[in-house]
Design a protein that fits this description.
With about 240 residues, the chain is α+β, with helices and mostly antiparallel strands. It has two domains: about 60 residues, 2-Layer Sandwich (Alpha-Beta Plaits), CATH 3.30.70.3550; about 170 residues, Aminopeptidase (3-Layer(aba) Sandwich), CATH 3.40.630. The protein is about 30% helix and about 25% strand. The strands form two sheets. Strands 11-5-10-9-8-7-6-12 form an eight-stranded mixed sheet, sandwiched between helices.
Length: about 240
């Protein structure tokens, strides 16, 4: 049974244990993408994911793919890239550019789930200092990055892009370092990909993931724009 959400952005979501097993994690449809609704969703292990001309769909897959920042895996070749210092990394300096780049069709997926209303929703969260971006630059050209949502000590990764080899990996490594400095405990990667697993992500039961949210979303991690905290870093391993 797929639940239909009402118009009240503060209304509760159904229990994630009621999500479908096929397709894995589909829980509800409808509602809106207001900041209140999105914060409520993330706090309970739910995220929106839908394509153009579809209703808003809400998901909570089991198992859940996560990355503990302390477990980031840096290959020998990536470590060499970091040591070269050829990339400059910034935080929250070009959020709109990053999410726009993430919305571009990929070679293996010509469509996009980052439809205009999704982009607008995350721009609103960014204005509230809840959505953040990591930007990777080469000679003042944006070549990679990622963005996501931060609640307490949990960072919910949404999407990443890469225009130069290793640039998105550099963004993730620098994100993990940044999160550890600020007291974060977990990165939600949502669904399994071999790329994320190769970087240290792992699958855990949804029940354990939701337990992490209960424990860590209330941590007193400093809010605010990350660009104030750490505007630029030269990546050197």
């Amino acid at each position: 049974m797929i639940f239909r959400l009402n118009e009240d952005p503060y209304s509760p979501f159904p229990d994630v244990a009621l999500a479908e097993t096929e397709p894995n994690g589909l829980l509800a449809l409808g509602g809106d993408l207001s900041p209140e609704r999105l914060i409520n969703a993330y706090r309970h292990g739910i995220f929106p994911w839908f394509s153009e001309n579809e209703p808003i769909l809400w998901w909570s897959p089991d198992p859940r793919t996560v990355l503990y920042p302390t477990k980031i895996r840096i290959s020998r070749s990536l470590r060499k890239t970091l040591r070269k210092g050829i990339f400059r990394v910034s935080f929250d300096n070009a959020f709109a550019q990053v999410i726009t780049a993430c919305s571009q069709p990929r070679k293996d997926a010509p469509g996009t789930w980052l439809v205009p209303e999704m982009i607008e929703a995350y721009l609103q969260l960014h204005a509230l200092d809840l959505a953040h971006s990591v930007e990777v630059w080469q000679e003042n050209r944006l070549i990679g990055g990622l963005y996501g949502v931060a609640i307490g000590g949990v960072f919910y990764g949404e999407s990443m892009f890469s225009r130069v080899s290793d640039s998105s990996k550099v963004a993730l490594v620098q994100l993990c370092s940044h999160l550890l400095e600020r007291g974060f405990r977990l990165i939600d990667c949502q669904v399994y990909t071999e790329h994320l697993i190769s970087l240290g992500a792992e699958e855990i039961p949804r029940e354990r993931f939701c337990g992490h949210l209960d424990d860590w979303c209330t941590l007193p991690v400093n809010p605010g724009s990350w660009s104030v905290d750490r505007a630029e870093t030269i990546t050197r391993g």
